[in-house]
Amino acid sequence: MNVLKNKTVLVTGGTGSFGKKFIHKALTLGVKKIIVFSRDELKQYEMKQEFDDNRLRFFIGDVRDKDRLYRAFNGVDIVIHAAAMKHVDACEYNPFEAVKTNIHGAQNIIEAAIDCGVEKVIALSTDKACSPVNLYGATKLASDKLFVAANAYVGDKKTSFSVVRYGNVVGSRGSVVPFFKKMKETGTLPVTDERMTRFWITLEQGVHFVLDNLERMHGGEIFVPKIPSMKVVDLAKAIAPECEIQIIGIRPGEKLHEAMIMEDDARHTVEFKDYYIIQPEFSWWSKKYAEGGKELSDGFAYTSDSNEEWLQIDQLKEMVKKF
Catalytic residue at 128? Predict the structure, then answer.
C-alpha cells in the first residue's frame, strides 16, 4: 500500500530540513500534488529552483493565520505539520511567540483540516515534549495534547490526527553537528556536560517513520521510534578528535538526558519491534488498533541514558560525514 499515491499533500514548514527531505521522497511515490506551506519566500524560491517539479505548489503563509490555512487546505488529502518554533533559546526569550506558533498554530491546523475535509494529519513532535523543562517542550506537549484530543473534536467528519515523537535529527537546522564543525576551527569544542546524552535519528529515518505511520494510524496515537542514544561528548570526539573539549555547564531549559516515554505514559503504551504507540486515554479509542503490541512493565521509562542501543564514536563519524 502506498498511502501517498494520487494524493494531494501539504507540508507546513515545508522548506525546513524535514520538509525538504519528506517532499523529495514523496515525489517518488506517485503523489498527485505537494503544497509547500511556509513563511520564507526566499527559501521557497530556492527550493523551487532545486526541485523543478510541476507537482509542487508554493504557498506563503503562517500557521498563526487561520484564514490562510483554510485557503491552503482546500482539496488537500494529507497534512504533515512540521512548522514550529523549535530553538530552545529563542522560545525562552520570546515565550508568547512560541505559544502563538506551536499551540495556537496547532489548533488552527486542526480546525482548518476538519472543516476542509483533510483525511489524515500527522504532527511532528519532539522528545522535549516528554516531561518538559523548557518552553519549547511545554508548547509541543500542549500541541501533542491538542492533536490527540482533536480526534474527539471531529464529530462526524472524516479527519484523523496522530503525532510522531522522536529525538535530535542529525544535521538538521540548529543541530549541534554544524555548530561543532564550525567551532572545530577554533581548536575547542564547548560541551555543556560530559554526562549529557541524546536520542539520535537521521532525516531519512524520520521521513520513513512518518510515512509508515501515515499508513498504520487510526487517529490519536503518539508514535515513538526505537532509536539509538549517543553521548554528546562522543559526538564532539567524532567530529574533532584533535580539539580540546571545554565543559561549559548546562544552559537554561536544557536537560541532562532526554525522554520520550515516562512512567505515567508507559501504562497506556504498547511496544512493537521497532516502535512504541502511546495510546490515547479516551473512551473512543479501541485497543484493537494496537493489537500485536506488548504491554510495558510497571515503571518503564524510555530515556536517552537508559537506552539499550548506543552509537559509538566510529558510528558517529560515519553518520556525520555527509554534513
Answer: yes
